[in-house]
Amino acid sequence: MSPYVIYFCVAISTGSIVAFSIIVGNPFLLVADRSEFADYFDLDSSPASFAMISMLTRVPALMALAILATLLVTKSKISSAPIFPAIMLITLPFSILANFPTAVPRFWLGSIIFCLALIYMIERDGIIRKLYSAAVLFSLLVAFPFAGILRNYFSDDRVHSFRTLVLDGYSNGQYDIFMMLLAVVRYVNVFGYTNGNQILGSVLFWVPRSIYGGKPYGTGYMVAQALQFDFYNLASPLLSEMYIDFGIVGVAISFVLFGFVITKQERLVSLGKATEIRKIVLAFVGGWMVILQRGSMNVAIANLVPLLILAWFVSVYFYGQKWRSERKYV
Q1: Residue 107 and which of 14, 38, 49, 238 are 20 to 30 A apart at CA?
Q2: Is 51 domain-assigned?
Q3: Where are the alpha helices (DSSP H) in 172-230?
Q4: Structure confidence by residue, pLDDT tens digits, 253-290
């Protein structure tokens, strides 16, 4: 592995801040609270705005942090270089700024935490992995509702009790996946299937509407608007995405294929045959599945694609090993 990979990490982490400043024109939004960020980009009606920001700024910064974390966890020779601490001191704050906790959605923040935790977990076994599973459960049941209050803390003057911070989270719209699935079924009963149009729109999220005239809105937004809900910024889980496009058959086929791919990748890691860069991608996918399972699809794809591109670039130009060389182990 080339030692120049650490300089690449500095470049993409600092470059992500520069890219955000150029695209948005207001670098202070990096540390804004979630409501300010959402209002600026009109995320209720256009989640693709956040998808583009993630693709160009947040994912590269996370990739830089993940590479350095992997070098540390695997005790690579590069991590013992005298300049490595300085590289970490530069990369870490820029990566945090690009993914500032108050400005990013909880699901993206959770994905980052899960990704970094999985990078550590891949090299461990036994009790450590069991503790990780318990930590994930705790995060979903306790930390997740708490983060909903924390992200608006600076713009909220109320004094919150423990019940408000945690317990009330179970009785509001934070756990809306089952409701959205029922809403999608109702939508299909009234308007019919979309026959792949939603997934096509998600894959082509980067194409402007001026070019792609029939580009669909996110499934959650589209269903909420069609059924005349009062609130349009709703999630659409993977199950709903598959159902609205292809029905029950599409759900069955897609989940079988999804399980097959994940199982193959887990087997590769368990055999100890995965390269470091592949471990990074799989760790990211472990966290990314939180976004995928919740939705929307266009945001999930926008987060995955740039990471795969960066991973390919790093594997070819810094690791000197293309992924296809690992196929014999799959």
Answers
A1: 14
A2: yes
A3: 177-191, 197-203, 219-226
A4: 988 998 898 888 878 877 777 777 788 888 888 778 87
